[in-house]
Amino acid sequence: MLRVQSGGQLYFSHRTPDAQELIRLVGRGEDGFPSAHISASHNHCSQLSRGIIRVCMMMTPLLTLLYEGCRPQDARWALLGDTTTPSWDWTMLLVVFAYTAMQAALYYLPFGQVEHRGKDEDGQVLRYNINGLHAFVISSALLVGMWSGGVFQACRITGRIYSLVCACYVFSFLIATLLYLHSFKKQPFSQTGPVLRGFALGKDINHRVFGVDMKHFFMVRIGFMGWGMVITCYLLAEIEKDGLVSLPMLLVVTFQLLYIVEFLLDEASVLPTKEFTQDGIGFLMIQGEYIYIPFYSSTAAFFLLQQGVQISLPSVFLICLLYGVGFAIYYISNGQKNCFRKDPSDPAFAGLRTILSPSGQNLLVSGWFGWVRHPNYLGDIMMTWAWTLPCGFSSVLPYIPAILCTNMLRERANEIEEACEEKHGEAWKEYCRRVPYQLLPNIY
Asked: Which residues, 6 or more positions from 28, have their beta carbon under 8 angstroms from its beta carbon?
């Protein structure tokens, strides 16, 4: 989980792509994708509309194609009428609704801390319940307990994975529609601008229903915790199928669960991020939390459930080393950055070199950030590839999410550096001269 502060703003770089990144992933128009905050000229609106339609229509079919390719070669394609893997099941819609309702109830758990950040339009301080870890532990225990007690079989979920994805798409559309209509209570329809843009990107930044911040709810409870539920189902399904957990599956699920738990331990870090403080909540974001995070991110585990891969112990050691080093780089470098921003005069930083920016801030040019300019992104990329490598090299498909993630973080690094150069001017150019590499020392 990365929190990158630059240009006076925090950028949240977990695997939830914002609207611009979602459109980049699916493809962009001839002139690229314009900012969501630019003036609504006819040309810009036309480009934005094409990008929005592309993402809204293609995210679920592309995921289905990706998952179809991960299945055994002798399996019939669900898209061609395989009745054993139906594309729609009303039970799955009920499962999505039940999970969402349960997370809404768990939001009010009397555990964890309470954060107060920012104010709404009426000047009221906004309250956030930071108890995602408690909710995740309860949800996971309930899932495993029901499975152990024979209440449900994981294979009944994984065998209807396309139905589950379609149900998530339909449910996210319904939720986005309700939120869009609910936003008219604050803003008359005549003042909302283009309907498609408002529906897809959202009109409100701090949309609340019954005191619950919808953006915080979907980011944490649906996206990250849903990801954890999905990979746990894959692991349980493998036990049902083979009687035990394979080593590759154990590595993938363990690595990803550690990543999710680390985020939940530092859940409050999402609150000051750019996505949280500046972007609206619309269909693109909600669809991303219901589909992109839980299912695209768990492609490696789905591939292993379908294919069954074996790896050698030396490979296991190297993969664990890659993950461990990546986790250490990202965690320690983030800790150094956050502590330095909190108190630059701390004696722990006495030996580190800095550059004074015209903005009055000091740029850290030694330590981890004297090695490369984005060491935390490097650590994130290393972890992503570490939980993909157990899939072996028989297919490129499980590596597609890792490739997309690597490119997404590279593009984010470029965007952050543009903002930093605009804010810090010559000081940033001097920092880039002293630390010439973005991600890989002596390479990139």
From this structure: 51
